[in-house]
Amino acid sequence: xxxxxxxxxxxxxxxxxxxxxxxxxxxxxxxxxxxxxxxxxxxxxxxxxxxxxxxxxxxxxxxxxxxxxxxxxxxxxxxxxxxxxxxxxxxxxxxxxxxxxxxxxxxxxxxxxxxxxxxxxxxxxxxxxxxxxxxxxxxxxxxxxxxxxxxxxxxxxxxxxxxxxxxxxxxxxxxxxxxxxxxxxxxxxxxxxxxxxxxxxxxxxxxxxxxxxxxxxxxxxxxxxxxxxxxxxxxxxxxxxxxxxxxxxxxxxxxxxxxxxxxxxxxxxxxxxxxxxxxxxxxxxxxxxxxxxxxxxxxxxxxxxxxxxxxxxxxxxxxxxxxxxxxxxxxxxxxxxxxxxxxxxxxxxxxxxxxxxxxxxxxxxxxxxxxxxxxxxxxxxxxxxxxxxxxxxxxxxxxxxxxxxxxxxxxxxxxxxxxxxxxxxxxxxxxxxxxxxxxxxxxxxxxxxxxxxxxxxxxxxxxxxxxxxxxxxxxxxxxxxxxxxxxxxxxxxxxxxxxxxxxxxxxxxxxxxxxxxxxxxxxxxxxxxxxxxxxxxxxxxxxxxxxxxxxxxxxxxxxxxxxxxxxxxxxxxxxxxxxxxxxxxxxxxxxxxxxx
Length: 596
Fold this sequence. Notes:
Blueprint: E1 3-14, E2 17-28, E3 32-36, H1 43-51, E4 58-63, E5 69-71, H2 84-92, H3 96-104, H4 111-114, H5 122-135, E6 140-144, H6 152-164, E7 168-172, H7 176-182, E8 185-190, E9 193-197, H8 201-236, H9 243-258, E10 281-292, E11 295-306, E12 310-314, H10 321-328, E13 336-341, E14 347-350, H11 352-355, H12 364-371, H13 378-387, H14 404-416, E15 422-426, H15 434-446, E16 450-454, H16 458-464, E17 467-472, E18 475-479, H17 483-508, H18 523-563, H19 567-595
Parallel strand pairs: 3-7, 3-8, 5-6, 6-7, 12-16, 12-17, 14-15, 15-16
Antiparallel strand pairs: 1-2, 1-4, 8-9, 10-11, 10-13, 17-18
Helix pairs in contact: 2-3, 2-5, 3-5, 8-9, 12-14, 18-19
C-alpha cells in the first residue's frame, strides 16, 4: 500500500477565515475517499493545493514519484468544431480504436462521438471528460462535484466506472447516494482540520452524530461542575477557615477550563412554509403537449396531482423535465390540450429562470423581507439566511454582486419564508451541502402543501417523493411503483446495455478475450466475472425485497376482501390480487433463474 499524497501540518487562510490549520492526511493507492464538509469549508482550495495550483502558507504536500493525477476539469477543454473522438485522440495521443473503446463505456457513440462536442449537453460533455481521464491511465482521480447537473443514467454510468477503476480516488460531493456507491473511506474538512474515517458516508454521519452527542453531554457535565465550583469559591474565599479549600477549588476550575470541549458548528434547521392543508385535486391536465413553437417535447400528457403529494419528475437530461415544470408554472404555454390548477392554489417556484431575474438593486435582506410571509419574524428570517450561508454582514450584500449559486440560495430562502401552498422546485439540492440538503428534506416532509420537483440526488428524491412521474421519449406518464423500483429499472437497462456492448466488442475483435496462450483466464477475465457476479447478487437481493413487498400487499388485500361488502369494490380488490399474483410469479421465476 503506497502513499500517493501526504499532507503535513498544512496551514491556509482566506482573509479572516481559517481553511486549514495543522491539517494532515494521507491518500493511499487502493482507497476511494469521499471528501465532505460544509460549503465554504475549503474543500476546493485543498484540491487546488494537492494539484499544485495553490501554495500553503505553512506545511508541505509530498507526492509519490509514480503519482499520476486525473482531474475532472470543470471548464470545457474542447476546440471549436472538434468531435468527441477528435478531442480524445488529441488529449490522450491514443489510437482511434482505443478512444472508441473507452468512449463506449460511457455510451458515447454515433453522433455523440463523432458530432461537435461543444453542442452536447453538460452531462454528455462530462462523459467525454471522464473517457479522457481513463485514457491517461491515472492512479489517483480527483473529482470535484462530479454529479452536479448529471442525470440519473450518467450518474450510474459514472458509478460503474468508479467501481471498476482499481486505483485511488478523492471525490468531493454532496450527493450521499453517489458517495455511498463509490467510496469506502470518508474525509471531512471542518474548522481547518482533516479527519479520515474508515467507512462509508452513512456510517461516518452516524458516527459523527454520536460523537457530537457525546461531546454535548461532556460539555454539559463540565459546565455544571464549573458552576458548582464557582458557587463554592464565591461563598468560601472570604472565610479564613475555608479560604484554602476555595483556592483548591479554583485550581480545579482552572483545569476544567483548559480541557473545555469545542462547541459544535451551528445545526442546520430549515423552516417549511406554514400553510393550511387542503384536500382534493391540486392539478389536472388532459391531452396536453409541451415544448416550443418549432419543437414539441412531449405530447398526449394526462395526469392529476392531489393536494399534499410530493411528486418527483424524473427522466434523463434533454427529455423535457424542465420544460414540463415551466409549463406547469405558466412560464411556457401548452402547445395543445388543457391544464388547470385547483381553487386557492398559490405557486412558489425555484428554478434557474427565476433566480436569474432577481432585482439587482436590492440587498439580500431587502429581498427576503419583501418576499417573506408577513408573519415571519426577523429572527426566523435571519436564521434562514444563516442556514443558507448568508451570515453577519453578508446579508447586506447587493444581489448584483452575487454569484449564480448565491442567487439560487437567496431564492430558496425567500421561497421557504413564504406562504405558498404549492412548491415547484427545479434541482433544489444544487449549491447546498450535505447538512443543508438533509434539513431541506426534513422541511419538505413536514410541509403540508404540495411539492412538484426535479432532482438527480437519489437520496433526496427517496426521502421526499411520495409519487413519481417519468418524462421519456416524448411521453409523460405516472410511474406505478416507488422511486427504488424506478432506480432498479434504470440500473437494469444500463446493465443490459453494458452486456450487449461487451458482446459486440468481443465479436468485433476489439476487446481482449481475457485469455492467454494457455487458454487460462487472465486477471481481466476474472474481474469481469466478479462484476457479473456482483450484478446478479444485487438483482437477487432486489427481487427478494420485491417478493416480500408483494406478499405483504397481497396479504393485506386478501384481508380487505374477506370483510368487503360492496360487490364493485370486491371485484376491484380481486383484480388487484390477480395482478400482484402475476408480478409474484414473474419475480419468483426470475429469482429461481438467477439463483440457479
